[in-house]
Design a protein that fits this description.
Shape: elongated
Oligomer: single chain
Order of helices and strands: HEEEHEEEEHEEEEEEE
Number of strands: 14
Structural class: mainly beta
Number of domains: 2
CATH superfamily of the largest domain: Myoviridae tail sheath stabiliser
Distance between the termini: 42 Å
């Protein structure tokens, strides 16, 4: 089973979709009369908060032209865990007609539910900038915000992924000497509920279904009473065609005409 190479980029799509939610946040700065004197888009990057704080500490005197631009938003993956609450029936399958061969089906078993935890950092050098960013985020999560991603392109599956806001914390490093640079940071914890998919296999399209009914369970000489057969109409129809079904019922009164070994009628 293991060793079959496949990669559907599911987790990558969730990470990209999560970051896209916060990539268009803007703040404004006003003078004492309320006139907007500056408008800027808040930069977004993937990475831990410690990375950005270290860059701040490397320039405590503010002599360098650029240490790190604030305000700034950063996020990172915090945890990945199986979610038993959303477990699906493992024997059910998704099926899709192959585009290159209409006589075959692409088949895939039901996906496995997982929770992907994110930590989002909002960093600023003054309180008003940080509050503007946070206030543009929190109203959309009540406590979840749902996005739609192209979950499985090979099977044509799109899925709604809820992003749940679980906690918000605040930190202000205003203490210390005058050479230390102040950093205000809000930390928001999110959980994305998504699914991981297994490999896609190929099967032939079923064109005939046959059901035999017996009056007893004898192994050597079963008495078959009825055979029920269903075939597509017309029989030459492909899976993409609009077709009906032909149903045939056969009755058998004499069990001697049935070969129990081959299962064929004599």
């Amino acid at each position: 089973m293991l060793g079959q190479q496949f990669y559907h980029e599911t987790m990558r799509k969730v990470v990209v979709a999560f970051g896209t939610i916060f990539n268009n946040i803007n703040i404004v700065r006003k003078n004492n009369s309320g006139t907007v004197i500056q408008r800027m888009k808040v930069p977004l990057a993937y990475g831990p908060a410690q990375k950005f704080l270290t860059r701040l500490d490397n320039d405590p005197s503010l002599k360098n032209k650029v240490a790190v631009t604030l305000p700034r938003i950063g996020f990172e993956i915090a945890n990945l865990a199986y979610d038993p609450v959303r477990k699906l029936n493992r024997v059910q399958k998704f099926k899709k007609v192959k585009s290159s061969d209409t006589n075959r089906l692409d088949v895939q078993y039901m996906p496995v539910p997982y929770n992907l935890d994110f930590t989002l950092y909002v960093m600023a050098k003054n309180s008003d900038d940080a509050l503007q960013v946070v206030e543009q985020i929190l109203p959309y999560f009540q406590p979840d915000y749902t996005i739609t991603i192209n979950d499985m392109a090979d099977m044509g599956i799109k899925r709604d992924v809820p992003i749940i806001l679980s906690s918000v914390s605040y930190e202000d490093s205003y203490q210390g000497n005058f050479e230390e640079r102040r950093a205000i940071m809000y930390t928001l914890a999110f959980t994305a509920k998504f699914y991981l998919y297994g490999p896609v296999t190929s099967d032939k399209v079923i064109k005939t279904v046959q059901v035999d009914q017996y009056t007893d369970s004898e192994i050597n000489a079963p008495s078959r009473e009825q055979r029920y057969t269903v075939t597509p109409n017309p029989a030459s129809a492909d899976a993409d065609d609009d077709f009906g079904f032909s149903e045939t019922t056969s009755f058998f009164q004499d069990a001697k005409n049935h070969d129990p070994v081959s299962g064929e009628d004599k």
